[in-house]
Automatic annotation (TrEMBL), chain A:
GO biological process: iron coordination entity transport
Protein name (database record): Iron complex transport system substrate-binding protein
Gene3D superfamilies linked to this entry: Nitrogenase molybdenum iron protein domain
Keywords tagged on the record: Ion transport, Iron, Iron transport, Signal, Transport
GO cellular component, one term: outer membrane-bounded periplasmic space
Residues covered by the Fe/B12 periplasmic-binding domain: 45-312
Stored CDD domains: FhuD (cd01146)
UniProt feature coiled coil, ranges: none
TrEMBL record, chain B:
UniProt protein name: Iron complex transport system permease protein
Keywords assigned: Cell membrane, Membrane, Transmembrane, Transmembrane helix, Transport
TM stretches of this protein: 20-37, 67-85, 97-119, 125-144, 151-173, 251-270, 282-303, 309-327, 348-371, 403-421, 433-454, 460-477, 484-507, 533-551, 563-582, 588-607, 619-640, 646-664
One Gene Ontology term, aspect cellular component: plasma membrane
Family classification: Belongs to the binding-protein-dependent transport system permease family. FecCD subfamily.
Source superkingdom: Bacteria
GO MF term (any one): transmembrane transporter activity
BP terms from Gene Ontology: siderophore-iron import into cell
Provenance organism: Methylorubrum salsuginis
Membrane topology: Multi-pass membrane protein
Coiled-coil regions, chain positions: none
């Protein structure tokens, strides 16, 4: 049995961490769920089994040789897609094809704890494997996790400097958006970000630990709701929006652009939502940037800023 | 015909139906009032025009529509359950009999992915898709001449088929799962009264049809011949009943989400307290269903503990214990189902079929080793074994254990299904029906989510513990009644509903993105390795002699309890032993491959349709078919869309169900 290190072992026995079992960067213990004892330094042929991992590899300049669902990536993340055009398809994120991965002869497999925990041994029989777990520790948000994770992945592929450059670019971009908002006097407004689901007027609202919440803080905005959740979202209905005075609502679509905001908000309850009446509901095109990396975060920041600036001035 | 609740023409005192009806009506009214009270109170005490306007909106557009939607949907589910149970003469038929929920789920997905449908998306689309699914099942069952058993089987097969298709779609486009899972927990939220008033129109046709069907359906409960004898046209009445019940179900599912469990429970509760006449049963089922649903919804809204505690979960939590208590007190006294079978006139010879199955299995396994993303001819197998082709060795190391696991698990699930259907004497029996699968799945999934690093022995122990604990509860509850088939089936069904709901709650509770758990719940052979096969094999080997030993007594049991006892059989002991064996087989299989659909439920029927009736023959044939089907599902799931993997649990149904339906329709022609 190969020796492997779990994040929980790290937390329980800090001793193990300090004796240098972790060959990766210093903050790895926050993000690694389980990893092979020996990793290539640096990795050259990486397989990425979640969208944000592929995005981060593209951002640090070493695109993966294989990734999950490459055909769906442009539609749901769509950031840095041109760097991922030629990446081999290894199946779905949940059940990637082991044969396809094996045939690529990777030197590192990157997966995520919430999908691939039971598959660690199988992956490891093909190549060294790291399963990541980026649930943020309070008061951090998923935006903080995204930055740390990208730095760490940069380390895996020997591109820490490039990763730090990419971080700085994204941070500067978000700061520019914050400046645009301040200039227009929109700082300090309250932001609510919803993800559309199926079902009548039923949504996910991104909570205080989400990437959106992290963005709001950097953009100089207040954020609602104040509570945290396990994965950055919780369910919400249009009724819950009735009591929210004076806020800007960003609705992330799950449909194509042919379904308009008016169609989505025609129920009696929506018609009474204060934000909609005040023209403060913005529709953002279909994406899962909230579950992406720093480049996704910058794209989301741009959209939110554009839509906030388009809303009527506060009365 | 008009007097829905009056039992006797000139009652000296109120009949039990009427009395119960009054009590139930008062209870439901109180429930509704309690639910509406806070908003009503706000309405009367509002200060100023703005506040009053807001309170009016809250009452008329949000709260009242939600309570009314709950009442209407619950009542429709209850009535549909009573109707289906009367038409099929099977007390465990659910409103979902013809796959309406599966159809509606397809509707949810279509509404998300086809922008052109945006205008009708929401309840209208779900209603239409639900009806469409039922039409498909009804056609497969043989249209308006369908016999009760055919309805049950074709409905079950079609629901599995649609679910399988849905699973494939979700496995490929998993970002849609979250919305679908949220809807599955119940969708009573009404963002305005408009949806409800529109949906109310769909209720009109079934409500108009019901009074005309009452007398006929009442007569049908006596049996087809008796009904014909008193001048009832059996076929039109049955068909009318099925269509009416389907329309009611589609209405309820579209309005409230898939909470059809209410409709399964309500009529059984009423039968248990002594309601017999169909008219009373129907009216009271509607009332009880409505009451149960708003009680569950009210509890969820009042507690608002967590996202996991949805209306569907609460319904199961409220309804199941009541049903169990009634079964325990021996009040569930429905007429026993004779467990008639989908007969085929033919008899086949085991000496021909068994070797043929074996050859087919070996050939299929060999093909499975060779076929996939990379074609591996037998020459490379040898090279892999001698160590000169590491790539082939790696790939064979992925393919071979999956096939081995598929063979073993397929045999175990099929054997479990054969034994259960004989003991429970119900065509719908399978490991799923007894709750054993759900019990094992619940404990395993809870364990996996709590300790993601859990190893194989722990997984196994949890699954067995869950499955056997379920069985233990069923046996304990039914011990006094010597494990009579119908109470056992009812108990099992209650548990399966409860555990399925709890599993769902656990999933939603642990993660907002249920993709990974749902794909595990479909079952499959993905990522299984040699240790899995090694862990599974002993359970099969140990059970083989037990199966051989039980096959003769199980044959006797099909003659009926009295005949079997007359031949010197200890019926109670036999049932307990057989149930135990079936539970062990199913739980062990679930531990490794998850709750694979179809194999345990329909391969026993398949063996019979091929022409095997005695257990000594039917068991090996069903097990061979189960293995064949599961291996085929494994190979197709891995290779058809490679590198995209389709869960084998979806494919067992996608492959098996159409074949099953085809065999059924052929049997029908042969019979005539």
């Amino acid at each position: 049995m190969m020796f492997s290190v779990s994040r929980r072992n790290f937390l329980v026995g800090g001793l193990a961490a300090s004796t240098g079992l972790a060959a990766g960067p210093a903050r790895a213990s926050d993000l690694v769920f389980r990893r092979s004892a020996v990793l290539p330094a640096p990795a050259r042929r990486v397989v990425a089994l979640e969208f944000l991992l592929a995005e981060m590899l593209a951002a640090v300049g070493v695109p993966p040789v294989g990734m999950s669902d490459p055909a769906l990536y442009p539609g749901w993340i769509g950031v840095l897609s041109e760097r991922l055009k030629d990446v081999a398809d290894v199946g779905t994120r949940q059940q990637p094809s082991l044969e396809a991965i094996a045939r690529l002869k990777p030197d590192l497999i990157l997966g995520v704890s919430y999908r691939h925990a039971p598959l660690f041994d199988v992956f490891e029989s093909i190549a060294p494997t790291v399963l990541l777990d980026f649930a943020p520790v309070p008061p951090a948000t998923r935006l903080d996790s995204a930055f740390s994770l990208q730095t760490m992945i940069g380390g895996f592929v020997g591109q820490r400097a490039q990763a730090e450059r990419a971080d700085a670019e994204v941070s500067a971009g978000i700061a520019r958006d914050a400046g645009r908002l301040a200039e227009a006097g929109r700082s300090g407004r309250r932001l609510v970000v919803l993800q559309e689901l199926s079902g009548q007027d039923t949504y996910w609202v991104f909570t205080a630990d989400s990437l959106s919440a992290g963005l709001a803080a950097r953009l100089g905005l207040r954020f609602w709701p104040p509570d945290r959740s396990r994965e950055g979202v919780r369910p919400l209905t249009s009724e819950d929006l009735l009591a929210l005075d004076d806020c800007d609502v960003m609705l992330v679509s799950t449909t194509g652009p042919d379904v308009t905001l008016a169609t989505k908000t025609r129920s009696a309850a929506w018609q009474r939502v204060p934000a909609l009446r005040a023209g403060r509901v913005g529709l953002i095109e279909r994406n899962i940037w909230n579950f992406g990396g720093p480049a996704s975060a910058l794209r989301l920041s741009n959209r939110i800023t554009d839509l906030l600036l388009r809303a009527p001035a506060a009365g | 015909m008009i007097a829905l609740t009056v039992d006797r023409p000139a009652p000296a005192r109120a009949s039990p139906g009427l009395r119960l009806g009054l009590i139930a009506a008062v209870l439901v009214a109180l429930l509704a009032l309690a639910r509406l009270w806070p908003t009503l109170h706000a309405l009367t005490t509002a200060h100023g025009p703005a506040e009053a306007e807001a309170a009016r909106f809250l009452f008329w557009e949000l709260r009242l529509p939600r309570v009314l939607a709950g009442l209407a949907a619950g009542a429709a589910f209850g009535a549909a359950g009573a109707l289906f149970q009367a038409v099929t003469r099977n007390p465990i038929a659910a409103p979902d009999l013809l796959g309406v929920t599966a159809g509606a789920q397809v509707g949810v997905l279509l509404g998300l992915t086809v922008p052109a449908l945006a205008a009708v998306s929401g309840p209208p689309l779900l209603f239409l898709c639900g009806l469409g699914a039922a039409a498909l099942a009804l056609t497969a069952a043989g249209g308006w001449r369908a016999s009760p058993l055919r309805l049950l089987l074709a409905g079950g097969a079609c629901a599995l088929l649609l679910n399988a298709g849905l699973t494939v779609a979700l496995a490929l486009f998993e970002q849609n799962i979250a919305g679908l899972a949220l809807w599955s927990g119940g969708a009573l939220y009404q963002p305005g009264a408009a949806g409800l008033t529109e949906a109310a129109l769909w209720l009109l046709p079934p409500l108009v049809a019901l009074p005309f069907l009452l007398r006929g359906l009442e007569a049908l409960s006596l049996g087809d011949d008796a009904a014909t004898g008193i001048g009832v046209a059996v076929l039109p009445v049955r068909f009318g009943g099925v269509v009416t019940a389907t329309a009611l179900t589609a209405f309820a599912v579209a309005l409230a989400g898939p909470i059809g469990f209410v409709g399964l429970i309500a009529p059984n509760l009423l039968r248990a307290v002594g309601i017999r006449r169909f008219g009373s049963l129907l009216a009271l089922s509607a009332l009880t269903g409505g009451g149960l649903l708003i009680a569950a919804d009210g509890a969820v809204a009042a507690l608002s503990l967590s996202a996991g505690l949805s209306t569907a979960v609460a319904t199961a939590l409220v309804g199941t214990p009541i049903l169990l208590v009634l079964v325990m007190r021996g009040r569930a006294l429905t007429p026993p189902d004779r467990g008639e079978v989908a007969a085929s006139g033919r008899a086949a010879s085991l000496a021909v079929v068994a070797p043929a199955l074996l050859v087919a299995l070996v050939a299929l396994a060999a093909f499975g080793l060779a076929w996939g993303e990379t074609w591996l001819p037998p020459t490379r197998w040898i090279a892999a074994l001698t160590g000169s082709d590491p790539e082939a060795a790696l790939i064979l190391g992925i393919r071979a254990p999956r096939i081995a696991v598929a063979v073993i698990a397929g045999m175990m699930l099929a054997a479990s299904g054969v034994v259960l259907q004989s003991v429970v004497r119900n065509a719908l029996a399978g490991p799923e029906l007894l709750g054993v699968t759900q019990g094992a799945a619940l404990t395993t999934l809870a364990g996996l989510l709590a300790w993601p690093l859990m190893g194989r022995p722990e997984t196994f122990a949890l699954a067995l513990a869950g499955g056997l604990a379920t069985l233990g509860l069923i046996l304990a509850i039914n011990r006094r009644r010597r494990f009579a088939p119908l109470p056992v089936a009812l108990t099992g069904l209650a548990f399966s509903g409860l555990f399925a709901a709890l599993t769902y709650a656990v999933i939603v509770e642990t993660s907002a993105q249920p993709a990974r758990a749902l794909i595990w719940l479909v079952g499959g052979t993905y990522g299984r390795a040699w240790p899995d096969a090694v862990a599974l094999l002993p359970w099969l080997l140990v059970s083989l002699p037990a199966l051989a030993f039980l096959s003769r007594p199980l044959d006797l049991l099909t003659l009926g309890d009295d005949a079997a006892a007359g031949l010197g059989l200890d019926v109670g002991l036999l049932r307990a032993l057989a149930l135990g064996l079936a539970a062990v087989l199913a739980s062990a299989a679930v531990a490794i491959v998850g709750p694979l659909a179809f194999v345990g439920l329909l391969t026993p029927h398949l063996a019979r349709l091929v022409g095997f009736h005695a257990h000594g023959d039917r068991l090996p044939v069903a097990m061979g078919l189960g293995a064949l089907l599961t291996v085929a599902a494994d190979i197709v799931g891995r290779g058809a869309l490679a590198p995209t993997e389709i869960p084998a649990g979806a494919l067992t149904a996608l492959i098996g169900a159409p074949y099953f339906l085809w065999l059924m329709s052929r049997g029908r022609k042969g019979a005539r």
